[in-house]
Amino acid sequence: MKNNLVTILLLITCNFAIGQDIHWSQFNDNQLFQNPGNAGHFDGDYRFIGNFRDQWRSVTIPYNTFSMSADARFKKWGVGLLMFHDQAGDGTFRTIETQGNISRSIKLTSDSSHVIRPGINFGMNHRQLNWDKLYFDSQYNGYILDQSLPTNENYQSDRKTNLSVGAGLIYEWQKSNRTKITAGFGAYNLNQPNQGFYNTEIKRDVRYNSFVKATFMLNEKWDIIPSIQYSQQGVYREFILGSSSRYYLNTLKGAHRALSAGLWYRTKDAGFLSFGYEHRDLFVGVSYDVNFSKLVPASNYRGGIEIAVRYIIRKFKPKNIIHRVCPDYI
Question: Taking the mean position of all CA atoms in its chain, how far away is CA 134?
């Protein structure tokens, strides 16, 4: 029990000190968070995405993350808005962030089979901590923890708001709707804003993210979709690799239905399963992490559940009739 408590305290302390950005298991289903170049890149006119993650419920007070995004495309331009709320730990450490994204589609070939999409990202980040829910060593009187004793912590405030800037670039080769390769690289918090609650300046580390995703048509009913993603922020590293497969229940354009399932691995941390269902312009996905890290004695292999929902709206576009054939009696 003592070792478990030490592990939990180290986990919470490291997360608070480093100030990492949030992360997702279903990284391919939160496109604006993955790269600003994804803004407006979809088949349709308006896209809405919701994501929810519940983690470490078996270890401590669960970490809850909720995200919503909306984006649209206007000819060669894409615009999008992302908002997320994250709450973690005993001190209800809360992060609320709003990000605006702009992208531009540039054709490298006349048939649009090779395209690049640069994008920029502007965000406002607000972090808040409830100091009254945290306990410190100065409150230990030699026998017990006495919460009435002073904490002796000289913090500047219990909240911090700052601005962040990011940029990204995506390259895509597309042979058909069911055969394509997409790769991207992004960098966030380029201005390294101060996020410290104490008088000492604590800069928010730049987060680098790169990914490669492919879709290959195996036959009329099956697709395979392998992906890898690598993220780096300060001393934190995350590498995810795996693949999902898609089975089409109906392949008719505008009325397709499909099921998907995947197996993924986050190095030195967890493995997870993902399942999804598509019906026309609606997608619902769910995944569950199985923890393999040093936290296993406390987590009992249980990590977190994640849900993703995506919906695309298409405008009605009447047919462009160039000419009409006049009847003979006129």
Answer: 29
